[in-house]
Amino acid sequence: MSTPVDKKKISIVCFSGDFDKMVAAFTVATGAAATNREVTMFFTFWGLNALKKKKGRVATGNSLMARAFNFLMGGINNLPLSRLNFFGASPILMTKMMKDHNVATLPELVEAAHALGIRIVACEMAMKILEVEQSDMIEEVESVVGVATFLNESENSHIIFI
Q1: In what order do the strands lie in the sheet containing 38-43?
Q2: Is residue 119 pLDDT above 80, yes or no?
Q3: Domain extents for the chain?
Q4: In the CATH scheme, what is the homologous superfamily, with its name and number, of domain 18-133?
Q5: Residue of 141, 131, 156 whose CA lies nearest to 8
Q6: Is beta strand 38-43 parallel, antiparallel or unpaired with respect to 119-123?
Q7: C-beta neighbour count of 144 within 10 angstroms
């Protein structure tokens, strides 16, 4: 993939499974893409939760430990707020506030990221540890890559961790 020399690149490492941090990651990503930057989002560990195809709590994986972690993570509809989660009520309230203020919700931001051509990749190592397959992920996941590949592809990028 070649990029014009004058086009700026941003790579976002999404390692948190928190609702507000995912909203921030997708807001920065879509804003960057809308301002003509090449954007890659690299999802690892708890960040993979936002990419799960099945929206509810599903025990995927072969080992008991992987099945437990994957069940507890619960997908994009079960992301907790990083602070003041109030037993899971806060993301619901935050989504309502976003709609009330005409701000894109997390599912809308994910859709916008795809429409804007943002490259979404998943971390091979984290997927192996959590026993998650690419078939468990939403179709917007372009590929599964290792950290070395991500870093090589992110050369000359601003790398942001969220």
Answers
A1: 141-145, 119-123, 38-43, 9-14, 158-161
A2: yes
A3: 18-133
A4: DsrEFH-like (3.40.1260.10)
A5: 156
A6: parallel
A7: 19
| Nearest alpha-carbon partner for 135 in 43, 60, 44 | 60
Q: pLDDT tens, 16-32?
A: 989 899 999 999 999 99
Q: What is 51-107 written as a DSSP string?
A: GBSS-S----SSSHHHHHHHHHH--GGGPPPSS--GGGHHHHHHHHHHHHTT---HH
Which pTM value belongs to this model? 0.85
Q: Which of 152, 154, 133 is nearest to 144 (CA)?
A: 133
| Per-residue pLDDT tens digits for 57-112 | 667 776 776 666 666 666 677 777 777 777 777 777 788 888 889 999 999 999 99
